[in-house]
């Protein structure tokens, strides 16, 4: 039997369905204003979801009595309306979340799992790269990886002053091929005849014939060793033709995860 009310006010708890989370409390210990709905629950436009898509489904606001959302200063000072869901505090998600339109955040987005976009075509933890038709070889393709070079490189850069030693990140000894390290030095203010005297797992040692202390900018590159070497040029019509380990790369706009 269905009942229809003009307004319904519940001062303590609202419960729909079977079961009840004990942490909401019972008796004198119940949390005022709390609610439990077994679900599925649809909010917003009633036709937004043709079938059950989740426990909570939030569609566009189509209520003619509701004013359009206005949030001046939020989202870089631009109003995007109507919103389907707005969260002005922290949001915690312990399972998958599906959003089929743009997502805007005024704060941080923190994920303990993978961040996957383009239907699996891009995985944030994978090496950033692009894969395009070869610009000068017909029937070939060109793949570059971060930093858009034909190597799986990482780098550090900075400024060294009044010292002859550039300390490398502690994790580099286990992360990069030490023999692949290259160093570029740019003296600041005057010629200093700087050379790279030695490279170890921990640091780069410089030497100068100048009487003035070393003052320079530096770029240090090294190739990652936690996977196979990148195959920069290969014959093929699409990224599917890449001859190396496809599991190591996430190519924007292309999905390797093709299961039956």
What would you say this structure looks like, in words?
The structure is a single chain. The chain has one helix at residues 172-175, and strands at residues 14-16, 35-37, 41-43, 56-58, 116-117, 122-123, 127-133, 140-145, 153-161, 165-167, 182-187, 194-199, 203-208, 215-223, 233-235, 249-251. The chain is mainly β and 260 residues long. Among the domains are: 118-148 and 228-251, no CATH class; 153-223, no CATH class. A hairpin with a 4-residue loop joins strand 5 and strand 6 (122-123).
Helix-strand layout with pairing:
Layout: E1 14-16, E2 35-37, E3 41-43, E4 56-58, E5 116-117, E6 122-123, E7 127-133, E8 140-145, E9 153-161, E10 165-167, H1 172-175, E11 182-187, E12 194-199, E13 203-208, E14 215-223, E15 233-235, E16 249-251
Parallel strand pairs: 1-2, 3-4, 7-16
Antiparallel strand pairs: 5-6, 7-8, 8-15, 9-14, 10-13, 11-14, 12-13
């Amino acid at each position: 039997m269905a009942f229809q009310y003009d307004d319904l006010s519940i001062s303590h708890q609202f419960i729909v369905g079977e079961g009840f989370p004990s942490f909401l409390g019972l008796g004198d210990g119940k949390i005022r204003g709390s609610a439990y709905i077994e679900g599925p629950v649809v909010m917003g436009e009633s036709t937004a979801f043709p079938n059950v898509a989740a426990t909570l489904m939030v569609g566009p606001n189509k209520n003619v009595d509701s004013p359009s959302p206005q949030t001046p200063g939020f989202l870089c000072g631009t109003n995007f309306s109507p919103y389907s869901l707005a969260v002005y505090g922290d949001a915690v998600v312990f399972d998958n979340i599906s959003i089929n339109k743009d997502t805007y955040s005024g704060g941080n987005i923190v994920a303990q799992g993978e961040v996957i976009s383009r239907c699996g075509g891009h995985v944030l933890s994978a090496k950033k790269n692009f894969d395009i038709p070869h610009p000068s070889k017909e029937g070939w393709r060109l793949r570059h990886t971060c930093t858009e070079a034909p190597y799986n490189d990482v780098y550090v850069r900075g400024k060294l002053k009044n010292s002859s030693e550039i300390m490398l990140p502690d994790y580099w000894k286990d992360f990069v091929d030490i023999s692949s390290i290259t160093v570029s030095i740019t003296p600041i203010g005057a010629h200093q005849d700087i050379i790279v005297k030695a490279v170890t797992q921990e640091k780069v040692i410089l030497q100068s014939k100048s009487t003035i202390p070393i003052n320079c900018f530096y770029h240090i590159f090294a190739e990652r060793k936690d996977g196979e070497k990148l195959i920069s040029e290969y014959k093929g019509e699409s990224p599917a033709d890449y001859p190396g380990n496809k599991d190591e790369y996430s190519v924007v706009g292309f999905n390797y995860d093709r299961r039956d």
